[in-house]
User: Fold this.
Amino acid sequence: MHQKNKLERHMANFLLGMVMYSHFRSEHMLVHHRYAATPRDPVTALMGEHFYRYFPRVLRNSFISTLGAEAAMLARKDLPAIDRGNPFWKYAALQGGFLFLALSLGGWAGVGLFLLQAGIAIWQLELVNFIEHYGLTRKHLGEGKYEHVQPRHSWNAAYKASNWLLINLQRHSDHYYKPDHRFPVLQTYTEADAPQLPYGYPIMTMAAMYPPMFRRIMNPRVRKWREMYYPEITDWSAYNTAKNPMPH
Assistant:
C-alpha cells in the first residue's frame, strides 16, 4: 500500500477487503504516518493504556478519522464527501463482494467463519500497532505543531528470526523514517538512534494481552526513552499518558 505502483495498491485493497478492514489503507497512509506519536493519531498507544482499552478506541476512532481525512482530500478539490472518488465506495464494494462469496460458498456458516477470521486478523494487526509506538511522543512545539518524525518515535526490534518471519516489519523505526522503502530492504538502528524492544513481535504481542506484564516490561523503557531523548522536559503530565493527553 506504500508503493506508487497501482497494481500493488490494488493488491493491498484486495487483501484488506479479505479481512473487512479496507479503511486501514486510508487510515495508515493519511493519518497514522502523518500524525504518529501525537494525540492526532488514534493508533498510537498512550503510556499506561492497556490493549483492551486501546482496541475498541482504535476501531472507533480510526474509522472516524479516516472518514474525515478522505472527506478533507475531496474538499480540497471542491468535491463532496459522497463523491464517487471517495475510496470508501470501493472499500464497501470489496467487502460486500467477499461477504457474498462467503455466503455463496458456505451459507451463513461460511459468513460466520469469514467474519471470525477477519476479526482475528484485525486483532493481530492492532496488537502489532499497539506495541510499535507505545508511549512514544513527538515533542510539542506549540500552536498544534510537532517535531518531524524520527527513528526514535518507533520501537525497533533487531531479532533475526522474527524479522525473517515478518519481512523486516520489526525494523519499524526505518519504516516511519523512510516510508517508501520496501520492507525487505529496511535497515535496523542501534540504541543510540531508536528505542529497542526487549523481544520480537511474537513475544511482545502475547505480553500485550496481559497488561500488568506489558506495563512492567515497557513503562521503565518509556521513562528511559524520555530521559535519553528529551531531558529538557521535566514535567510529562501534559504529554501522552492514559489520563493526560498531549496538548493539541
Summary: Residues 160 and 168 are 9 Å apart (CA to CA). The first helix runs from residue 6 to 17. The helical segments are 6-17, 24-35, 51-75, 87-132, 160-165, 172-177, 201-208, 211-229.
